[in-house]
UniProtKB/TrEMBL annotation:
Protein name: ABC transporter domain-containing protein
Membrane protein topology class: Multi-pass membrane protein
Keyword entries, A-Z: ATP-binding, Chloroplast, Membrane, Nucleotide-binding, Plastid, Transmembrane, Transmembrane helix
Family per record: Belongs to the ABC transporter superfamily. ABCA family. CPR flippase (TC 3.A.1.211) subfamily.
One Pfam assignment: ABC2_membrane_3
InterPro entries found in the cross-reference section: AAA+_ATPase (IPR003593), ABC2_TM (IPR013525), ABC_transporter-like_ATP-bd (IPR003439), ABC_transporter-like_CS (IPR017871), ABCA (IPR026082), P-loop_NTPase (IPR027417)
Alphabetized PANTHER family for the sequence: ABC TRANSPORTER A FAMILY MEMBER 3-RELATED, ATP-BINDING CASSETTE TRANSPORTER SUBFAMILY A ABCA
GO cellular component, one term: membrane
Localization terms from the record: Membrane
Alphabetized Gene3D superfamilies for the sequence: P-loop containing nucleotide triphosphate hydrolases
């Protein structure tokens, strides 16, 4: 049903043609059509979708198997408190099983219950003899020879603002009057030291287990060359050992920067070629005086064993602090003052079992890969429709951007939610602590926000791709690249409390790092909860300043909205297979948009070259007048009006600009089929691409049913049909399903839709034998072409474009297709391109021949043959000896004849129609047969093919 006629001036004051558009399909109808098509499409791809959904299950199953194997290993005796079978004391046979720290190995002891941990002296960290700092003579360090001849003294660098006060402090550090190590209480007044490497916990002091690496710090060790008896009790266990003596060496330094360099430069690094000079501790007394203690103690916190490969342990610093505090009291109160450090002890603990939650440990990396694997799926889907022009095909049949975005987004969201639900469900069922210990509601909100962000991020970056393979490769590089960067780079920044928080926030603006931060927090809470038997991430934990979940959820929520807006904007202004790009300021309407009026010039310059319109072609000039009348509404209404459209591609690599279309003007009324003829590269497909919105014209204007195509493309598409040069079909959908989808886009519903689909299938011979219900992937090339023609005509469109519709058809199918087109052109305008002259003569009411981007001639078949083929073609075959006599015969018939072909006695001539009569030709040939040997002859009128060849040659400057 058409709308009332109206006259509306265009951008230059011309009146646009009368409007006769179909009623536009509603938003809901378009969305319903696309939803039904997508559901059918996904149903046919159920195996692929099933693989996507089950992938999280396979990964969770793998983690479950690994976790089970790890639990089996950790349940062994090496990872729990030790037990021994003790024989009965009364001589009875057998033994009694006893468990506890006293029955455990060193590795087992850390798992035992210790209700009353033992106490032991606080040891000073002392370098091993072979690593103690040495130096040149006069440097203040012990001579290097001491490493071979005897134990070197232990060096303590020190500095301060007041040197004399600092030296007075150090003189009290190791001052002792009694060395009675048999009295445990007196050990608090002495300074025991050790070079052992500490454990991660101090339930057992390693110095007690390795007496050879234990020392007593005394000012003079000459009296203790054979060792010092050392005895005390470790709980109920008596300890009696002989330990070594070590002398202190205090070395003044002018400032603490020197001490820092020495501490850093001389420590063990695992490099055997690097000189090692270790210090026990360094002291900076700063502005200390008798009224205050200003103290900085330096030590190296990366203390390792000899191999340099062991993890860092605890560093003993309590004794270093006590030495300085006790010396300060002696300076203030006198040498008798004392501040003993009685002992150190661990906290009581229950018996424990080593637990390792493998899934939580590696979760951030692997789970990040699992979640992000949906991104390449989204990219592939979106870019596939653009690369194969399926999206523009849908737009040409009336699908708006709104329904497309809504249904596509809803599909991806449903897939993502199902994917994440299976992911969490599988993980919970097999008891992965990562899922079970963290609050499900927190996980739900986090995953829901992220999958929405991932969807809009996929829409955003899909606007930058036109090739599926490129988009897929980039998608997987993003997935695995951000996973590895998160695990091996970003995680270290998060764990380093000294790293700039603003830099971490900036990195979390990238969706990949935001996801990794959230998964990292979940894994940390689950790991600790599993080890300590507590709960994992809860809503209350989000208030913790060190918890990054709240921050990243806020970032992702904001980016969700921003990326959606940016993605929609880029989809409008970047040409990637979705139609004409819009002005970058299209959202402002007509406020700031530049006026692009119809540049209707007879000539124009591009990059220094001049392109002129040939005004000598009378038929072409008359067509321009028809366009003027259509614009002024002084002629019959036209469905398609092209007003001086041009397409110029810019020059590249030093080549001049390419003028694909040079000033095309056409006025095509309803009820007419216009044929576009021309050699390959003449500009036919480019012209149709501009008329259908695939390409924007460099200049000029195109009106479809009275609407400017650059401003009202969405409205125009509601009354347009398109049969492209290459079949744009979904191979998993049937022919009927294609027609149902496009019929719904043209507002067909219910029984009317089914009747129209059946009629369309019958018209192109795809109804019988159930052919229409077969998947198009099984169709032959001819069947696909017939389906494409049926799609272009479904829903009674007012304007139809057919680009070589009969290509690949057999003669019977071609004849049937011609009948369909002839019947369809009533009350609609059809533009058809073809290389078949027979097809053009049968179907087209008017023809236009294009050469080199220009319309060379226009008219119906008879007019063109009359105008460009005003001659007869006379052919004659004789013996070679009679060729001259045959030429004389033709010249007698027409002095103005021209020979156009000659080969082995066969000659072809063109005879002007004004020179001869058909009867005279027959009479002359019959008479000549009595004089020369005429083997064959023929006399024909000019064909359309002859016209085509002649126009093409003349336009190219050839004969």
């Amino acid at each position: 049903m058409s709308s009332p006629a109206r006259r509306e001036p265009d951008r230059e004051g011309h009146h646009r043609p009368e409007l006769h558009l179909l009623k536009a399909t509603s938003f809901g109808t378009q969305a319903n059509a696309l939803l039904r098509k997508n559901l059918t499409f996904q149903k046919r791809n159920k195996k692929t979708n099933g693989c996507i959904i089950t992938f999280p299950f396979l990964l969770c199953l793998l983690l479950f198997v690994l976790q089970t194997a790890i639990n089996t290993i950790l349940s062994g005796s090496a990872f729990k408190c030790g037990c021994k079978c003790i024989p009965y004391a009364n001589g009875t046979s057998g033994c009694e099983k006893k468990c506890g720290i006293e029955y455990s190995t060193q590795s087992q002891a850390q798992f035992c219950a210790i209700e009353s941990p033992p106490t032991w002296p606080a040891f000073l960290q002392v370098p091993a003899p072979q690593y103690r700092a040495v130096g040149e003579a006069g440097s203040g360090f012990p001579a290097a020879v001491c490493r071979n001849s005897g134990p070197c003294s232990v060096t303590f660098p020190f500095t301060g603002n007041n040197r004399s006060f600092a030296e007075g402090m150090t003189s009290y550090f190791f001052q002792v009057t009694n060395v009675n190590t048999s009295d445990p209480l007196l050990l608090s007044h002495l300074t025991p030291g050790t070079s052992t490497w500490t454990f991660l916990s101090n339930l057992v002091e390693p110095a007690i287990l390795y007496p050879d690496e234990t020392y007593l710090m005394l000012p003079n060790c000459s009296n203790f060359k054979n060792g010092i008896p050392f005895s005390f009790s470790l709980g109920s266990i008596p300890i009696e050992e002989d330990i070594n003596c070590a002398e202190p060496n205090f070395l003044w330094r002018d400032n603490y920067d020197i001490i820092n360099r020495e501490l850093y430069g001389g420590f063990r690094t695992g490099n055997p070629n690097r000189e090692i000079n270790e210090f026990s501790a360094a002291y900076d007394f700063g502005s200390s005086s008798t009224k205050k203690l200003d103290l900085t103690i330096g030590y190296n916190a990366t203390y390792k064993n000899d191999t340099g490969n062991s993890p860092p342990g605890l560093v003993r610093v309590s004794r270093s602090m006590n030495l300085a505090a006790r010396a300060f009291l002696k300076v203030i109160l006198g040498a008798d003052a004392d501040l003993p450090l009685w002992f150190v002890s661990e906290m009581p603990k229950d018996e424990s079992q080593l637990k390792l939650d493998f899934a939580s440990l590696i979760g951030p990396l692997f789970f990040m890969w699992v979640i992000q694997l949906l991104l390449p799926v989204i990219l592939t889907y979106l870019v596939y429709e653009k690369q194969n022009n399926l999206r523009i095909m849908m737009k040409m049949h009336g699908l708006g951007d709104g329904p497309y975005w809504l249904i596509s987004y809803a599909y991806f969201l449903a897939l993502s939610i199902l994917y994440m639900f299976c992911f969490v469900l599988f993980g919970s069922v097999i008891d992965l602590k990562f899922f079970r210990l963290n609050s499900y509601s927190v996980q739900l909100v986090f995953y829901l926000i992220y999958v929405n962000l991932q969807i809009v991020f996929g829409f955003l970056i899909s606007a930058l791709f036109t090739n599926v393979k490129t988009a897929t490769v980039v998608g997987y590089m993003y997935v695995f690249g951000f996973g590895l960067l998160g695990n091996f780079l970003f995680q270290f920044f998060v764990e380093d409390t000294s790293f700039n928080a603003g830099a971490i926030f900036a990195m979390e603006l990238l969706p990949g790092f935001a996801l990794y931060r959230g998964l990292y927090e979940f894994s940390q809470y689950a790991f600790r909860a599993n080890y300590m038997g507590s709960s994992g991430m809860q809503w209350s934990n989000l208030n913790d300043s060190e918890n990054g979940i709240r921050t990243v959820m806020g970032i992702m929520a904001v980016e969700w909205f921003l990326f959606l807006v940016i993605a929609y904007y880029l989809d409008k202004v970047i040409v990637t297979g979705s139609g004409l790009k819009k002005d970058p300021l299209f959202f402002l309407g007509g406020i700031l948009r530049k006026k692009k009026g119809s540049k209707r010039l007879l000539s124009f310059k591009v990059a220094g070259s001049q392109v002129s319109v040939d005004l000598q072609k009378q038929d072409v000039a008359e067509e321009r007048k028809s366009v003027e009348r259509a614009l002024e509404q002084s002629g019959p209404p036209c469905a398609i009006v092209c007003d001086e459209i041009r397409k110029v591609y810019p020059g590249r690599d030093g080549n001049p600009p390419k003028h694909a279309v040079k000033g095309l003007s056409l006025a095509i009324p309803r009820g007419q089929c216009f044929g576009m003829l021309g050699p390959n590269g003449a500009g036919k497909t480019t012209s149709i691409s501009m008329m259908t919105g695939l390409l924007a014209p460099t200049s000029g204007a195109i009106y479809i049913e009275g609407l400017d195509i650059q401003e009202n493309l969405d409205k125009i598409y509601s009354s347009m049909g398109m049969c492209p040069q290459h079949d744009l079909l979904w191979e998993t959908l049937t022919g009927r399903e294609h027609l149902l989808f496009y019929g719904r886009l043209k507002n067909l519903k219910g029984a009317g839709l089914n009747d129209a689909v059946d009629a369309s299938l019958k018209s192109v011979n795809l109804f019988n034998g159930g052919v229409g219900d077969k998947r198009t992937g099984a169709y032959s090339g001819g069947m696909k072409r017939r389906l494409s023609v049926a799609i272009s005509l479904i829903g009674d469109p007012r304007v139809v474009y057919m680009d070589e519709p009969s290509t690949g058809l057999d003669p019977a199918s071609r004849s049937n297709l011609w009948d369909v087109v002839k019947q369809a052109k009533q009350n609609r305008a059809i533009i058809l391109t073809t290389h078949s002259m027979e097809e053009a003569e049968i179907l087209c009411d008017r023809l236009g021949i294009f050469v080199n981007g220009e319309l060379q001639c226009i008219g119906n078949s008879k007019e063109l043959k009359s105008r460009y083929g005003g001659s007869y073609v006379f052919s004659i075959t004789t013996s070679q000896a009679d060729e001259e006599r045959a030429i004389n015969l033709v010249h007698q018939l027409s002095p103005n004849s021209k020979r156009v072909y000659s080969l082995s006695g066969t000659q072809k001539f063109e005879l002007p129609k004004s020179d001869v009569r058909i009867a005279d030709v027959f009479r002359a040939v019959e008479q000549a047969k009595t004089e020369i040997s005429i083997q064959a002859w023929g006399f024909a009128d000019t064909t359309l093919e002859d016209v085509f060849i002649k126009v093409a040659r003349e336009s190219n400057g050839t004969k």
